[in-house]
Design goal:
The complex is a heterotrimer of chains A (about 325), B (about 290) and C (about 70). Chain A has about 325 residues and is α/β, with parallel strands linked by helices. Chain A has 15 helices and seven strands. In chain A, a hairpin with a 5-residue loop joins strand 4 and strand 5. Chain C is built from three helices and two strands. Chain C has a two-stranded antiparallel ribbon. Classes of the chains: A alpha/beta (about 325), B alpha+beta (about 290), C alpha+beta (about 70).
């Protein structure tokens, strides 16, 4: 049992027409676990479904709409707080899709606010955000130093009153990763949306989503990230994307993302490599009760995510320090 | 999951899966007289999972999760499996229910009108509702009151009543033994036993009614009654609601309507019997 | 005491006079200075001495901006 029914339902919503009660139970549990239930509800739309199911899907759509409203408000508050700095505040991920009214934003559950700012402005950004009521989340000095020195973002901040998180990035991959995307170009070519906020260009959006999915992280939430990419690919010129990906050193990853998106959500005509198939197995590792399956495979990807982010010696030291503090990987 | 049960309570249906048979067996036994769910489709999934690789057999430890879960939830021992299942259902409702405004409150109905009682743990709202349920009132729920967003009607959610410590003895003396669940000693909140609501309360779990009185009870104080103003009532109810923020504007509209139309009083009482007398008097007076 | 549901943020606010009156005076959405608001409000209400009233209105505008109920025009 894996998440294939969810993937099929997103690709071709008509497949749910013949579902019985237990199939619906499994689909809903998987969709919730993968945070895709809002998207699924939008894809199913007005298709006839059992009444009890309709309530569940309607609730999911309302939740997604509310999250989008709150996310855009957070973005507005950040723009107001940073206005004196006069720099481009570029929205990333879900908030960006909502702000730019993209297909990828429809029904999407949005988590934290992610923004991209120039690296040399980080100290000022931190200062103005704190003046506007954001404060630190992580109190651990090791984690704090690790974030500042090696990651591509400030340690997470949370707003005192609204209790919402903000992640401030200065590039899209850790400084220690093997690829070095051109963050300056991303900011320079960003597109204005409302209220003094910007989003990445169509090609850069995909490069970011792909970097996030394949070059940084252990693929948790991967089905949703891949759906984002699939939607974004539908709105961009292939040649322009290829050129831009080359500029960021992400050609290989973008090509792989195309194959994966096509295999799961598209026509399924591209040939897959053995590595593609392993990634797909990891993406689909969810059962009809919403549980994570294939623990060995997940753990391997967890290790890989750290290996991607830092050189081997540093990795060993980092994992040792975390282990001593009592953190254990799932 | 190896063992499972589907339960319908009020407007919600739960699919509960467990790695162990005992919690499911206990649920089957205590919910035996509840109307069978229309089909197997559930609004929520609850999972009782081993809290670690070996914890299925070695000192079995239950991690409560499901569609909605809390990553830092403390695991529970297998003898408390029934409590774990009930907490699992609470968690899904509190975090995931959107079709009504949820108030952390007990509610009872008499002559087509509803009394809603809200307060923190230990305020006495659950015990008071259980006792009124044995004295001519219909118990609608001890944990959540569901407020219809369009009509302002309160709907029943009559789960097993969760009795703690002293309340166990009080109710065990009043109701037949077959309506009492197993004693679970030494939980985080002390001793707990569950009580099955009366057959009539269960049979009428789809019947709502409009609210007539809101009480803020406080057990263990000298007797006192005072009216509570709109502003304070609104604020206390937003704190008592797990989904007010998630509902957005319809939640705001429903709660302001409730506060404007339902009188609110804070009552302090030293004992259950005094509380019951106070409630009956206040109910008469409003008629 | 007035309860406000602020749609863009989903936040609920409990406010007292003159906040609701100031919001009503900003109804047409055109930017207005504290002075203009003072003039609009004094046509409807007795606000007392002009300089105290103006200072109070300015103070309220600062608080309301911090809450996100209003914003300064560019």
């Amino acid at each position: 049992m894996n998440a294939l029914p969810l993937v099929c339902a997103l690709r071709e919503p008509g497949t749910v027409a013949a579902f019985g009660a237990e199939q619906w139970n499994m689909l809903i549990a998987m969709a919730r676990a993968e945070r895709l239930i809002g998207t699924l509800a939008v894809r199913i739309g007005d298709m006839p479904v059992p009444e009890a199911v309709r309530f569940v899907l309607a609730d999911a759509r309302l939740d997604a709409e509310r999250e989008a409203r709150q996310a855009l408000w957070e973005a507005d508050r950040a723009a107001v707080a940073l206005k004196p700095l006069g720099l481009r505040v570029v929205l990333l991920k879900g908030t960006a899709y909502a702000a730019a009214r993209l297909k990828a934003g429809e029904g999407r559950f949005i988590g934290d606010l992610d923004i991209l700012v120039p690296r040399n402005a980080m100290a000022e950004v931190e200062k103005y955000l704190m003046a506007a009521g954001w404060e630190w989340v992580k109190a651990d000095p090791y984690d704090d130093a690790y974030y500042r020195q090696w990651m591509h973002e400030l340690p997470p901040m949370i707003h005192q009153e609204r209790d919402r998180m903000i992640d401030v990035h200065h590039t899209i991959l850790p400084l220690t990763a093997r690829q070095t995307p051109d963050a300056g170009a991303m900011i320079a070519d960003a597109i204005s949306v409302t209220g003094g906020l910007y989003v990445l260009s169509p090609e850069d959006r995909i490069c970011h989503a792909v970097a996030h999915l394949l070059a940084d992280g252990d693929l948790a939430g991967g089905l949703r990230n891949l759906w984002d990419i699939y939607c974004l690919l539908g709105e961009v010129d292939a040649g322009a994307l290829e050129t831009r990906a080359g500029r960021h050193g992400l050609s290989r990853h973008v090509r792989q993302a195309r194959r994966l998106a096509d295999a799961l959500y598209g026509e399924g005509r591209r040939r897959l490599t053995p590595w593609d198939r392993i990634v797909i197995a990891r993406l689909l590792a969810r059962d009809g009760w919403g549980r994570e399956t294939r623990k060995g495979l997940r753990f391997a990807f967890y290790l890989r995510s750290h290996w991607l982010r830092m050189p081997p010696m540093m990795l060993a030291r980092h994992l040792f320090t975390k282990w001593r503090k009592g953190h254990r990987p799932v | 999951m190896k063992h499972r049960i589907t339960l319908s309570i009020g407007p919600a249906t739960f699919r509960i899966g467990s790695a162990w048979p005992d919690p499911i067996r206990e649920l089957k036994h205590l919910y035996a007289d509840y109307p069978a769910p229309a089909d197997d489709f559930a609004d929520f999934t609850v999972r009782l999972e081993p809290a670690g690789a070996l914890r299925r057999w070695l000192r079995p430890s239950i991690f409560i999760t499901g569609d909605h879960g809390l990553a830092d939830a403390a695991p529970m021992s297998l003898p408390h499996g029934l409590l774990a299942a009930e907490m699992g259902m609470n968690l899904q409702m509190a975090l995931g229910w959107r079709r009504h405004l949820l108030l952390h409150a007990s509610s009872v109905e008499k002559n087509g009108r509803v009394l809603v009682m809200t307060g923190e743990s230990g305020s006495g709202k659950s015990t008071l509702a259980a006792q009124l349920g044995e004295r001519g009132w219909r118990l609608m729920g001890d944990e959540f009151a569901l407020l219809d967003l369009a009509t302002g009607v309160v709907l029943p959610f009559p789960r097993l009543v969760s009795l703690k410590n002293r309340a166990i003895g009080v109710m065990a003396a009043e109701v037949p033994a077959e309506r009492m669940g197993p004693l679970m000693a030494g939980t985080a909140k002390g001793d707990i036993r569950h009580m099955v609501p009366r057959a009539e309360a269960v049979a009428r779990m789809d019947e709502g009614a409009s609210p007539a009185l809101l009480l803020f009870p406080r057990f263990g104080h000298a007797p006192d009654i005072r009216s509570v103003g709109h502003g304070e009532t609104f604020m206390r109810l937003t704190q008592a609601s797990t989904n007010y923020v998630a509902l957005g504007e319809p939640g705001f509209t429903a709660l302001t309507r409730f506060v404007k139309t339902v009188p609110a009083k804070a009552i302090d009482f030293p004992s259950g019997n005094e509380a019951i007398a106070m409630v009956e008097r206040l109910w008469e007076q409003r008629a | 005491m007035v309860l406000l549901y602020h749609r863009p943020s989903g936040q609920t606010h409990m406010v007292i006079s003159p906040v609701p009156e100031i919001l009503a005076a900003l109804k047409d959405s055109a930017p207005a200075s504290a002075q203009i608001l003072y003039e609009r409000l004094s046509r409807l209400y007795d606000l007392g001495p002009a300089d105290t009233a103006l200072a109070e209105i300015e103070g309220h505008l600062v608080n309301m901006t911090a809450l996100g109920l209003i914003r300064t025009a560019a």
